[in-house]
Amino acid sequence: MPNDPRGSGSDYVGLCEHFCTHGPATKVTTRQSAAHVPHDRQAREAAKAVLSRKPVQFSADQIQTIASGIGVSFAKGGVTVWECAIMPDHVPAVFGRHEANAEYIMNCMKGAATRALLDAGMQPFQHESHGHKTPHCWAEKQWIVYLNSIEQIENTIEYVAKNPERAGLPLQHWPFVVPFRATDVWRLA
User: What is the pTM for the complete model shown?
Assistant: First the structure.
């Protein structure tokens, strides 16, 4: 939500009702997650209720299809992925340094996932297509954190790996994920 009380990556609120009722965008530039920050959950849920579309919640079948698509993207781009959790409402991934910037890699990942969902007839807004244009099912931007130490990388890998379990889902093991070795960091530097 662009005006999430814990902050967001948005610069503006595009829906007038949201702005008038819930205020301006709450842009944050910190690198720490604010997900744990106490907030008015009722206010956040009320803001979601006036959205033109319900927030996307991927099913187990859609998650498998997304994995197939992003696996192709990572392989095509030669991206070393140390962990990835495909959750019903977001996809955290930890990957090594690459010649392409992280924003480009994440956009390619979202594009490949979208193509796989469309090809399978499973894109959440596919029924709203107008010609060749289908509404996006991903956030426009992404939250990217650059990890600066082996300890940060290892902690983040562990955190991402446990995402499904914390949400009551089975652990995930994707074929495009490779084990992290500290020597990889220096090789990719």
Answer: 0.75
Tallying the residues shown for the chain, one arrives at 189
CA atoms within 13 Å, Cβ hemisphere of 44: 14
Looking at the structure, tell me whether residues 66 and 118 fall in a common domain: yes
Supply the range of the domain harboring residue 162. 60-188
Q: Say if residue 165's pLDDT is above 80.
A: yes
What are the structure tokens assigned to 28, written together?
């944050």
User: What is the overall mean pLDDT for the chain?
Assistant: 82
Say if residue 127's pLDDT is above 90.
no
Cβ neighbours around 94 below 10 Å, total: 23
Q: Which residue has the tokens 């579309």?
A: 53
Determine the Cα–Cα distance for residues 24 and 152; give it in Å rounded to an integer.
33
Would you say residue 29 has pLDDT above 80? no
